[in-house]
Design brief:
Rossmann fold, 2 domains, 5-stranded parallel beta sheet, Arc Repressor Mutant, subunit A, 4-stranded antiparallel beta sheet, single chain
C-alpha cells in the first residue's frame, strides 16, 4: 500500500484529499504546515507528498527545498496561484507536478497515481540506506555495518541510532529521545538513555564521535570528519 503525506493548513482540504485517497487504497498521513512536514518526512518514508504552497510557519516551496536535501519522494504542489512563474519555480525546486486550486479530487487522484507510477511505485521494496564513509545503516533491513563488518545491537540501540540519524544535525533533548525510543509511558530515568548511548558508541567504534554530547541538553548525531 502506497503512503501519502498531505500537507495543508486547511482542515477541509486535508479531509477531502484523505477521503478520496483512502478510497483509492492509499494510506494517508497529515501535516498542517511546512515545518511539521519536514519533521514527519525525517521520521517516516512516503511514496508521495501533496503539499500546499501558502502555509504558516514555513511555506510549501521552502519546505520542498528542505525535504529535497534528504529525500527524493515525489511532491505534488497545490496552490491557488496558477501563474507560470510559480509553476516554474516549483519545478526548479524539484516538485513533480503542480495542481491549481480549486481542483477536482478525482483529477488529483489520477495525477497521484501517475506520479507514483512514474517514480517506480511504492518504495516498500526499495532500500532506505544511510552511508557516511565506512558507516552504513540499512533502515529497511535493520542492518548496521562499520567498515563492512556487521554490528549487532539490541532493539533499543537500533531504534535510538535510527532516530538520531534520521534527525542528524539537530539537537535532540534527552526528553525527546526517551519519549521517541522508549515511549511516553517510560518509568525509568535518564541513566537508561546514557547507558544505551555508551553501548551505541562502543558498537560504532571509530564513528562513536558522530554522537556528540550537548551538555545540559542531550545529544546530536553529526558527520564528524
Amino acid at each position: 500500500m502506497s503512503r501519502i503525506l498531505v500537507v495543508d493548513d486547511e482542515f477541509r482540504i486535508r479531509q477531502i484529499i484523505r477521503k478520496y485517497a483512502e478510497f483509492e487504497g492509499y494510506e494517508v498521513e497529515e501535516a498542517t504546515d511546512g515545518m511539521q512536514a519536514i519533521e514527519v518526512c525525517r521520521r517516516e518514508s512516503f511514496d508521495l507528498i501533496i503539499m500546499d504552497v501558502m502555509m504558516p510557519e514555513l511555506d510549501g516551496f521552502s519546505a520542498c527545498r528542505e525535504i529535497r536535501k534528504f529525500s527524493k519522494t515525489p511532491i505534488i504542489m497545490l496552490s491557488a496561484r496558477g501563474e507560470e512563474y510559480d509553476k516554474i519555480h516549483g519545478f526548479e525546486l524539484g516538485t513533480d507536478d503542480y495542481v491549481v486550486k480549486p481542483f477536482s479530487p478525482k483529477e488529483l487522484m489520477m495525477r497521484v497515481a501517475a506520479v507514483i507510477k512514474r517514480s517506480g511505485g511504492s518504495k516498500e521494496d526499495e532500500r532506505d540506506v544511510y552511508a557516511f564513509k565506512g558507516l552504513k545503516i540499512d533502515f529497511s533491513a535493520r542492518i548496521v555495518t562499520v567498515n563492512d563488518k556487521r554490528v549487532e545491537m539490541t532493539p533499543k540501540e537500533y531504534e535510538l541510532l535510527f532516530y538520531m540519524v534520521r534527525n542528524k544535525g539537530l539537537a535532540l533533548t534527552r526528553e525527546s529521545l526517551i519519549s521517541e525510543v522508549w515511549g511516553y509511558d517510560f518509568f525509568g530515568d535518564e541513566r537508561t538513555l546514557d547507558t544505551h548511548i555508551k553501548l551505541l558508541r562502543k558498537s560504532l567504534g571509530e564513528y562513536s564521535k558522530c554522537i556528540v554530547t550537548l551538555r545540559g541538553v542531550g545529544y546530536r548525531f553529526e558527520e564528524v570528519q
